[in-house]
Each structure stands twice: as C-alpha cells, then as structure tokens.
Amino acid sequence: MGNRLTQIATRTGDDGTTGLGDNTRVSKASGRPQAMGDVDELNSHIGLLLCEGLPQDMRELLIDVQHQLFNLGGELSIPGFELLKDEALAQLDQQLAHYNARLPRLQEFILPAGTRAAAQAHVCRTVARRAERAVVALGAQEPLRAAPRQYLNRLSDLLFVLARVLNRVDGGDDVYWKSERLARYQSDAAE
C-alpha cells in the first residue's frame, strides 16, 4: 500500500494524473479515479446526514457504513486488493430487513422529499447509485471483485428505506408522487 498522506499540496496531480495505492499513476479522467471519487462523495454526503438528529441505532449504522465505504474506496485505489469483507454486505442485508419490516408497503412512487434528514438520505441514495454505475463501468474495463458493486447496490436500497423511516420519526409519512393511478386508488378506497 502506498504511503499515507503527510502533506496535501504535493503538486503531483498538476499534470492531470493521480496516484493509486499501489504507487502507479493514472489519468484523473479514467474509470478508477471516477469510481473512487463517487464513493468519496457518497461518504461525504453520509457525513452530512449524520449532522441531522437521527435515531441512535441508525447513527451507529451510518458511522459503520462510512468506515466500509472507506474500505471500498481503498480497495478501488489498489487494483487487485481486497478490503471490503463479505460481512459488510451481510450487515446491509440484515439492516435492510430490520428497517423495512417497520414500514408499510409502498402505494406508489415517492418523491425524494419530506424531512430534511429524509431528503438528505435520498441524496445519499442517488449518489450511491452513481457510484455503483461508476464501479460497474470500471468493472467492464478491468477485473474487479463483485463486492464493491454489490455493496453500493444494497446500500442505495438501504438509504431509500432509511429515508422512509426518517420521514416517520415524528409521525410523518412518505411524500407520494401525485399520479393518476394513486388518485384512482385513493378514490376507490374512499368509496
């Protein structure tokens, strides 16, 4: 693994390249730095979500997710290296089942809205999807383990569920898309 950063302004990236964890240099426009950057952005957005008033169990989960995303980013930065463990994916599956069990079935598509915390969880979800697409694109260009892609896919699902949970913390609800289908459903249910 490469040296840990001891200074930030090294000027080595002035030529449009960046150093990977194995000390190779690649273009900043290539797939690996793109995927690493999207994962880093996701981690930053989760940090912003953690500034909100969250239930303690959710806070602890998201802090662990930040550590796992750092592992995922580290794995992306060192071709052929494994940092993200199978247990991390299993934890997401467990938490997804746990939080989803509390929620009513969806009646219709929901908007990425509601409370500030829920809206931020939706931002995290969309950035997770972008990071997943970047990892898929990288995997089409060079060998890559399935775990990073699977983790991001599961995490985006979990973030969607957490947004729904957060909208209900103080008795709220999802913000449903006002579709004709939903209006008919509600009209039929009222009759």
UniProtKB/TrEMBL annotation:
Q: Could you tell me what reaction this enzyme catalyses? A: 2 cob(II)alamin + AH2 + 2 ATP = 2 adenosylcob(III)alamin + 2 triphosphate + A + 2 H(+)
- Highest taxon listed in the record's lineage: Bacteria
Q: Which GO terms describe its biological process?
A: cobalamin biosynthetic process
Q: What keywords is this UniProt entry annotated with? A: ATP-binding, Cobalamin biosynthesis, Nucleotide-binding, Transferase
Q: Where is this region: Disordered?
A: 1-35
GO terms for MF: ATP binding; corrinoid adenosyltransferase activity
Tell me, how does this one assemble? Homotrimer.
User: Which NCBIfam families does this entry report, sorted A to Z?
Assistant: PduO_Nterm (TIGR00636)
Q: What is this protein called?
A: Cobalamin adenosyltransferase
Organism, by scientific name, is: Melaminivora suipulveris
Q: What is the lineage of its organism?
A: Bacteria, Pseudomonadati, Pseudomonadota, Betaproteobacteria, Burkholderiales
